[in-house]
Amino acid sequence: MEQNWWKNSVVYQIYPRSFCDSNGDGVGDLNGIRSKLWYLEQLGVDVLWLSPVYCSPNADNGYDISDYYNIQPEYGTMEDMKQLLDQCNQRGMRVIMDLVVNHTSDEHTWFQQSRSSKTNPYRDFYIWRPGKDGGPPNDLSSNFGGSAWEYDPETQEYYLHFYGKKQPDLNWSNPRLRQEIWKMMNFWIDLGIGGFRMDVIDLIGKDPDQGIRENGPKLHEYLQEMNRETFGKHDLLTVGECWGATPDIGRLYSDPDRHELSMIFQFEQIQLDKQPGGHRWDLKPLELPDLKAVFTKWQKELDGHGWNSLFWSNHDLPRIVSRWGTDGAYRVESAKMLATVLHGMKGTPYIYQGEELGMTNMPFASPDDFTDIESRNICRERRAAGFSEEEILTSLRAKARDNARTPMQWSQEPQAGFTTGTPWFPVNPNYTHINAQQALDDPDSIFYYYQKLVALRKHAPILTQGSYELLCPQDPDVYAYLRRWQGETWLILCNFHQTTASFSYPGQGKAILSNYSQPELRDLTHVSLRPYEAAIYQIQESEESL
Ligand code: TEU
Ligand code: CA
Question: Which of 134, 296, 312, 441 is the most exposed place for a label (fewest CB within 10 A)?
Answer without folding.
Answer: 134
